[in-house]
Specification:
- The chain is mainly alpha-helical and 221 residues long.
- The protein has eight helices and no strands.
- It has helices at 7-10, 21-48, 61-86, 90-116, 134-137, 149-157, 160-188, 192-220.
- The radius of gyration is 18 Å and the shape is globular.
- It starts with 6 loop residues before the first helix and ends with a helix.
- 42% of the residues are buried.
């Protein structure tokens, strides 16, 4: 579930410089932060609605996916919030806000699965160990598509059009990696909630990828 953050109600268009520009952006950031928290709470609620007959174990693919995708999503939420706050292109800010709120809600759902299965939010298994060739999917300790610490530092320091393009590039790679992880769990699970949510995640990320790539092509000219 995503929450649309409209440009009109959050911040002035790039290039506007009136005295109300900074306060408007601050209020927009506060509104997005509230939306992210609400998304998390809704995710928790959604995860509690379906009764459990059988419970995946601590080393199951379902538990591994929930834990690893939570970590993966958390970086996307961080990147989305940065984009909403620092982006100069209206579409970039919109995409960032939508990804932050949507993926925070999905984190809430996955963490609720773990709690209802009687499992800890984090486990002792290595990243991606729930996939047969999972070790090959982890590069420099990072799951597929995740930005490195150096790339995150570059993103925080970038400004203007450079920032907008870098965000779109990093989030595109991030989403492609996320889709690979979703495909991996769909191959091995028949747990109804996981299958249903994973398919929704994949559809959402594929739609996001279309928007990301279109925006990137436009900004590159």
């Amino acid at each position: 579930m995503t929450t649309a953050i409209t440009r009109e109600n959050t911040a002035p268009a790039a290039g506007d410089g009136g005295p109300g520009a900074a306060p408007a952006r601050r209020w927009g950031t506060v509104a997005l932060a509230v939306a992210v928290v609400l998304g998390l709470l809704l995710g928790y609620t959604g995860g509690l609605l379906t009764p459990r007959i059988t419970r995946p174990g601590d080393t199951s693919a379902e538990a591994g996916f929930a834990r690893d995708m939570t970590t993966h999503h958390a970086q996307a939420v961080e990147m989305g919030l940065i984009a909403f706050d620092q982006g100069t292109d209206p579409e970039v800010r919109q995409i960032g806000g939508d990804i932050a709120t949507g993926q925070q809600g999905e984190i809430g759902t996955m963490q609720t699965w773990l709690r209802s299965w009687g499992l800890d939010p984090t486990g002792s298994e290595p990243k991606m160990s729930w996939v047969a060739d999972g070790s090959d999917m982890v590069q420099n300790g990072l799951m597929p598509g995740m930005a490195t610490p150096e790339e995150m530092a570059r993103l925080r320091a970038a400004q203007g059009r450079e920032f907008d393009i870098l965000f779109l590039e990093l989030m595109t790679a991030h989403h492609i990696g996320g889709v690979h992880m979703i495909d991996a769990v769909l191959k091995v699970t028949d747990e109804p909630d996981v299958v249903r949510s994973a398919r929704i995640m994949k559809n959402t990320q594929q739609k996001d990828l279309t928007n990301l790539q279109n925006a990137l092509a436009r900004l590159r000219g």
